[in-house]
Amino acid sequence: MTQMMKAAVVREFGQPLTFDELPVPEPGPNEVLVRIMASGVCHTDLHAAHGDWPVKPTPPFVPGHEGAGVVARVGPGVTHLEEGDAVGIAWLHDACGRCEYCTTGWETLCESQHMSGYTVNGSFAEYAIGHADYVARLPDNVDFASIAPILCAGITTYKGLKETEARPGEWVAISGVGGLGHVAIQYAKAMGLHVAALDVTAEKLTLARDLGADVAIDASDAHAVEHVIDTTEGGAHGVLVTAVSVPAFNQALQLVRRKGTISLNGLPPGEFQTPIFDVVLKRLTIRGSIVGTRKDLEEAIAFAAEGKVRPRIHETSLDRINEVFSDLEAGTVDGRMVIRM
Ligand code: NAD
Ligand code: ZN
Ligand code: ZN
Predict the structure, then answer these.
(1) N or C: which terminal CB in the chain sees fewer CB atoms within 10 Å?
(2) Which architecture, in CATH terms, is 4-151+292-340?
(3) Dist. CA 153 → ligand 2 center (Å)
(4) Residue from 218, 228, 249, 265 whose mutation best tests the ligand 1 pocket (most atoms within 8 A of CB)
(5) pLDDT of the chain along its 341 residues, tens only?
């Protein structure tokens, strides 16, 4: 008899997710079946469910890419993982391993990659398939709900901060103090950076200060830019944008110091203006940053394992996913919502 599992499914873009009984998938060669214990809810899952981006997933699909759990079964050919191992399912489900990106430590740019919860079913289910060479190894006795947000929010902002090239003792401005931004602040402090955090609600600014931001500034205040420039004595060396807001991208260009780098994580659908004169004369670098490699993930998990980064989580259940999506859209989530299976 086929074993069944509960899953939250996107059947149509923009419609509430449905709760279905699906067959527990079979791990194929080099795959593992993961029993999901906890899954964080990333704003990307909402973009996926809305079909927000130019490259869309194909419904029906199961979102979720912050899935922490244990190996329930191993597929043929898997030798380095066994039943009971604690693992994490992240955005990068797998990549080809052979292209110029894969062979140079940029597997996140592989054109043949699969993405969890987007092109393959993800972690909003009792079980999900991971690729044995791409699942994260989690520490023994890990708290699954607390580690889950590291699998996307953690790795993405840790990598995004590295991509700002800001050095210890320098300033980084972090725009957006949501699921990503609130862990970004902690990584930045642990990396020896000074942090100016920006968001648009008093609650998020309080959270930013609680987590160690040197200053927390209302991005919608008319003097926000001036405030950052004054505090940082000339602008931040690096700017990390995690905000789901196009105006935040425009603002980022004003927060940065000459020769600085703006690293973009947020993915609101749309376009932003880049003032050519400023970019050229100030020798600015603007770059996108997409999740992180397996090595970045290992490092990001180590910060959490050592207690240097602690996601602010609120536990919920799978059947509340549509309410969580509404809260994310309204910008009222404090830290990260995590589904406990
Ligand atoms: P979230 O909803 O938890 O947080 C977004 C935050 O942006 C909220 O706190 C909101 O108040 C804030 N915000 C809104 N307008 C703002 C403004 N004008 N200035 C400053 N802050 C503002 O979302 P999240 O899960 O943190 O994800 C953030 C974005 O990052 C999403 O677009 C998501 O798809 C994207 N993302 C990208 C990657 C990547 O690899 N590049 C990985 C994960 C998520
Ligand atoms: Zn994500
Ligand atoms: Zn490749």
Answers:
(1) N
(2) Alpha-Beta Complex (3.90)
(3) 6
(4) 265
(5) 789 999 999 999 999 999 999 999 999 999 999 999 999 999 999 999 999 999 999 999 999 999 999 999 999 999 999 999 999 999 999 999 999 999 999 999 999 999 999 999 999 999 999 999 999 999 989 999 999 999 999 999 999 999 999 999 999 999 999 999 999 999 999 999 999 999 999 999 999 999 999 999 999 999 999 999 999 999 999 999 999 999 999 999 999 999 999 999 999 999 999 999 999 999 999 999 999 999 999 999 999 999 999 999 999 999 999 999 999 999 999 999 999 99
Ligand 1 atom having least distance to the Cα of 201: 11
CA 83 to ligand 1 center in whole angstroms: 35
Domain boundaries for CATH 3.90.180.10 within the chain: 4-151+292-340
DSSP states along 13-63: TTSPPEEEEEEPPPP-TTEEEEEEEEEE--HHHHHHHHT-SSS---SSB--
Ligand 3 center to 98 CA (angstroms): 5
**Ligand 1 neighbour 152 (Cβ under 6 A):** yes
Instruction: Read off the amino acid at residue 3.
Output: Q
Fold type of domain 154-288: Rossmann fold (3.40.50)
| 25 CB neighbour count, 10 Å cutoff | 18
Q: Report the alpha-carbon distance of residue 126 to residue 6 in Å, rounded.
A: 6
Of 39, 41, 43, best ligand 1 pocket probe by most atoms within 8 Å of the beta carbon = 43
Instruction: Point out which residues pair with 275 in neighbouring strands.
Output: none
Q: What are the φ and ψ backbone dihedral angles of 78, each rounded to 5 degrees? A: -85, 120
The CB of 219 under 6 Å from ligand 1? The reply is: yes
Q: Is 176 touching ligand 1 by the criterion CB < 6 Å?
A: yes
